[in-house]
Write a structure and sequence with these properties.
Length: 194
Amino acid sequence: MRTVFFDIDTQIDFLYPAGALYVPGAERLLGALERLNHYAAAHSIPVVSTMDAHAEDDPEFAQWPAHCVAGTAGQRKPARTLLERRALVPTAPGEYPLEGAEQVILEKQALDLFTNPNLPGLLEKLEAGRCVVYGVVTEYCVRCAALGLLRLGKQVELVTDAIQSLDEEAARRTLDEFTAGGGRLTTVAEVCAG
């Protein structure tokens, strides 16, 4: 069973206080995010990094303030979370080269990474069996990733000290739902101990 790390929406607009849709406290995750991504690279574990890539007039902005507009500084990932060899998988259906990539940037225009039609093929190519999930926001995009991967029958672990929520009660319900569905809670230290 091949392990794949899922680095969910760790973008400047979410992680930093000056970001357009800052998640309070998320900047404290940077060390954990960097450690996880670089541990993966050092152990030949692929990293799938989801990345919001919104249009300026994105329909999502009716619900949320404008954020992660494609091509803006806020849409980028912090440099310390990027791996050297990357591949981009946009939302347009197609075959995208992944050879040699340590990190796959999976673009999306909605909360759920499964809205990218290229995700099923990507999971198949990566032979993902064990999925380690972390990022922001626990009760939104992280929830979609963790529960969606569980529904596919994957072994899913959620790194509790590498996620951040907006609403602690909603985050607790998410963790309860995740563990009730067969997911396992873990920590950065535990993941990086191997």
